């Protein structure tokens, strides 16, 4: 069976996570991804290893071909330019302005191939007050407000244990590239620039927090494993030393939970009648559930 992106060629000039996640999505659906790597070193992701194994590269370098080019060298740059007319997509994650400094700005690229879709991945986007600053996922995970919300109330903010901002940017970027490719095929036939900012990608997942701040003037605080919008949601210790992750985020689920633990009266308890009531009184509800699960094994 023909893959949906078969026949689409992608030049991947990016390094590390976001760009590689983006192009991995395209490669998974049949695109021919040519990974441009530095001679003698390759993509930096190759050097994130576990016991000598390139674990990250094995995942996000999948289904790609590699081409070693030193883009500071005139001959290598000429070889890259020769591939532009033969390609449909170019992905890069240089600091904004670096592509132009290399003589590969958008007008040059579109001069070589007017149909080329150019995905530009950066920390803060190609425009705006932070555009000129280097961007890294860790900074974005802090400035977006994610770390502020993550962790426990009596402890410091917690960064995610994975490259979360990069991964969201890669997924959003792949979607943007697909939309731009559709415009090439069914719209005006012209390639577009897809401006992918790690900050905007991760911040979009916190949109409800922005609405809450605008509407109420209050920010959510760290709540550990609990959710700011539904209850109960938590991880409960069991008698055998194992843990149970539980969420009853809609009314029917809470009612079923109450009956299952032999406490049907909780359904009509004024502290827990609605989801809003349960969020307000989540500490009391968690104490009840902790006592129940703490007396039983996970099985």
Written overview of the protein:
By secondary structure, this protein is α/β, with parallel strands linked by helices. It folds into two domains: 9-205, Crotonobetainyl-coa:carnitine coa-transferase, domain 1 (Rossmann fold, 3-Layer(aba) Sandwich); 233-294, formyl-coa transferase, domain 3, CATH 3.30.1540.10. It contains 13 helices and eight strands. A six-stranded parallel β-sheet has the order 3-2-1-4-5-6. Strands 7-8 form a two-stranded antiparallel ribbon. Helix 2 (55-60) links the parallel strand 2 and strand 3. Helix 1 (16-28) packs across helix 8 (164-186). The longest helix is centred in the middle third of the chain and has 23 residues, at 164-186. It is elongated, with a radius of gyration of 24 Å. The mean pLDDT is 94.
CATH class term of the largest domain: Alpha Beta
Most strands sheet: 6 strands, parallel
Number of strands: 8
User: What would you report as the Rg, rounded to the nearest angstrom?
Assistant: 24 Å
Helix content, binned percent: 25-40%
- Give the CA-based shape: elongated
Distance between the termini: 44 Å
On the 0-100 scale, what is the average pLDDT?
94
Strand content: 5-15%
Number of domains: 2
